[in-house]
Amino acid sequence: MPHPDVRLATDPDGRPRLIQYFSLCGVWAVTPYDACDLRCSYCITFSQGRSTPRLTTGVAATLQRELAALPRDATLAVGGLVDAYPSVEDELGVTRKVLQALVDSGRRVIVITKGPCVVRDTDLLLKGAMRVCMSLSTLDDEALQSIEPHVALPSERMAAVETLCAAGVDVTLQAQPWIPGVTDAESIISWANGRFPVSFTPLNVDSPGVARTQLGRQLNQHDINRAYLTERARLAGRAKVIWHKPLWVGTARRDKPSHPGRRATDTERRNLAAVGRYLDAFGEQAQFEALIGFISPYARLQDTTGHAGDRAFPQSGRAYDLLYALYDVFDSPAMQITLLQASGDAVDLHLEVRGVHARPLFDIPAGGHEACVPLAFRYVFDSRGLVLDYTQWADLDALYAGSHGASPDMRGQQVSREQPQPASGHRNTL
Question: Quick one: angle between helices 94-105 and 59-67, nearest 10?
């Protein structure tokens, strides 16, 4: 079984849902299996375990019902949380049933895997808007044995990519994670030779799960990032090669000190430090990257404004973090923290964000004026130090007041007045 904090979506009656919103990547993850038996040591979704199908019958009907709650332009990622082709898929064929239903729906689909079994479904992958992302950190069969002991060899995955490309399937090679001393980026780029895109992303040892592994003990994020940037500079200009921005380039570090107060427990200190690192990232313009080290892939966001959720598709589960959103729509944004307090597994954060409202936010047109928006968050952490649940509140009056295109009716509906109060005691739930 996967880690107890791994929380795959279910319906109110307890039935498994195959689709859930994956806030870190802004896609809907389609998860045919409840755990991944590949057990990669650098996994940041904590989904390792015996691969058991979430559904064995009624797959098409379930997907049809769930897809009805999603926007037509939604991107679906099969394997976003648990690999699309664990070792049992060759026998059980659950992912093939999922792909067939998605092909019939006409949706845009990404298939993420390390499994050569994906070649079996070439006929489906050639239909509609399908893309395969094959993960491969090195071309050396021996190099990955210690960190990917249950995964197909690089040579097997390379053969699968060659077969898919020859058949005309849209393929991207995800050279992820880029690991110093393991990943030979130049060899990977030379092998691809511009036939398909190659994307690199450095190893994230700041992830709580990875930090406890041998890789996490041997390496630190600062050194990984510097080596990665050096390699990126050396190989710059190669065709169809994407180098994703590394995590935590700057002053934010996993060991950054915090000041939680004299009586804080170790858990409270850990959680406060995580919030502090996250807030630091906004000053470094690295807030998106920071989310990966702060929010669980299984996090649920409860919005009390009535605006940050997807109102066109209210059952989709999609919501937007308001702090992140304000930094996106404001010019010259700045924050002032008025409360940062830990209690048990919860942290309360109250702050104000100031800036020039230069771009629309939800249904609020850009007013071009300077505004100050009060925000309040309550983060509830899981046992690994990632946010598993959080509630957000905001007073958007200042935006409506300066947006000349906002109607009086809109201004009367904009925000809930139920601002969450700071937690008291040592146990908080949402």
Answer: 40
Mean pLDDT of 270-295: 80
In sequence order, what DSSP letters do the residues of 17-75 get, joined into one string?
A: PSEEEETTTTEEEE-SBSSBTT--TT-SS--BS---BS-SS-HHHHHHHHHTTS-TT-E
236: alpha, beta or left? (left if phi > 0; alpha if psi -120 to 50)? beta
Least Cα distance to 326 among 301, 307, 304, 354 occurs for: 354
First to last CA, the chain: 26
Q: What angle do CA 328, 109, 26 make, to 5 degrees?
A: 20
Whether the per-residue pLDDT at 272 is higher than 90: the answer is yes
Q: 406 exposed, middle or buried (CB, 10 Å; 0-12, 13-18, 19+)?
A: middle
Last residue of a domain, one of 214, 247, 280: 247
Q: What is the CA radius of gyration of the chain?
A: 22
Decide the pairing of beta strands 295-303 and 330-343: unpaired
pLDDT digits (tens, 9 = 90+) for 12-21: 777 888 998 8
> Following DSSP, what letter does each residue of 215-272 receive, concatenated?
HHHH--HHHHHHHHHHHHHHTTT-TTEEEPPPS--SS--TT------TT--HHHHHHH
Phi, psi of 312 (to 5 degrees): -70, -30
In a domain, 171, yes or no: yes
Q: Are the C-beta atoms of 132 and 172 separated by less than 8 Å?
A: yes
- β-pairing, 387-394 vs 295-303, is parallel
Q: What is the mean pLDDT of residues 387-407?
A: 78
* Backbone phi and psi for residue 139, each to the nearest 5 degrees, phi listed first: -95, 0
Of 247, 265, 293, the last residue of a domain is: 247
Q: Classify 288 as helix, strand or coil.
A: helix
If asked whether residues 367 and 232 sit together in one domain, one would say no
Q: How far apart are CA 375 and CA 350, in angstroms?
A: 6
SS3 415: coil
pLDDT single digits (tens) 194-216: 999 999 999 988 777 777 778 88
The 3-state DSSP class for residue 76 equals: strand
